From TrEMBL:
Provenance organism: Clostridium formicaceticum
InterPro entries per UniProt: P-loop_NTPase, T6A_TsaE
Keywords: ATP-binding, Cytoplasm, Magnesium, Metal-binding, Nucleotide-binding, tRNA processing
Subcellular localization: Cytoplasm
UniProt name for this protein: tRNA threonylcarbamoyladenosine biosynthesis protein TsaE
Main location: cytoplasm
Family stated for the protein in its record: Belongs to the TsaE family.
Stored Pfam families: TsaE
Highest taxon, organism lineage: Bacteria
């Protein structure tokens, strides 16, 4: 199941991110995919607002994962700099993936082989300077309902 929607400016992407942050529950996993500058971090920042995270969410530059406190914890991964899957062993990633928070994983396709079985994949495609196509793919019925709720 995949559903795509276009956003015509950053504000629209943020509205979508925040709404998803409002809807998610503990243990939900979100995989973000898209080129540099597509809007993954923009989406994540708004998602965090929906989760009631008060701290400003930034791209974790020197760490692979950053934890934030919100309505439920947010575990924000950015695995862009991963060159070898073995580097993931340096962090207790399973404690995050199967922990009590919500995981957002930027560049998730780079660690495909260790991802949890079920998640929502959010693929952000650059269309033009202010337009993005955002595609949501759900791997199971629970996530499918969540995506339907998000886009209705
Ligand atoms: P990524 O994390 O995918 O590398 P960022 O979120 O850091 O990307 O950057 C996205 C950039 O694109 C931001 O500068 C943002 O203002 C801009 N932008 C323009 N239009 C949009 C849009 N419709 N949705 C999201 N970001 C947009
Ligand atoms: Mg980013």
């Amino acid at each position: 199941m995949m559903k795509c929607i276009k956003t015509f400016n950053e504000k629209e992407t943020k509205a979508l991110g925040k709404k998803l942050g409002d809807l998610v529950k503990a243990k939900d996993v979100l995989c973000l995919v898209g080129d540099l500058g597509a809007g993954k971090t923009t989406f994540t920042k708004a998602f965090a607002i929906g989760l009631e995270v008060e701290e400003d969410v930034t791209s974790p530059t020197f760490t692979i994962v950053q934890e934030y406190q919100g309505r439920i914890p947010l575990y924000h991964f950015d695995v862009y700099r991963i060159e070898n899957i073995d580097q993931m062993e340096d962090i207790p990633y399973e404690e995050y993936f199967y922990g009590d928070g919500v995981c957002v994983i930027e560049w998730a396709h780079l660690i495909e082989e260790i991802l949890p079985k079920d998640y929502i994949k959010v693929q952000i495609n650059y269309v033009d300077i202010e337009t993005r196509e955002i595609c949501f793919e759900a791997t199971n019925g629970y996530y499918k309902k969540l995506v339907e709720e998000l886009l209705k």
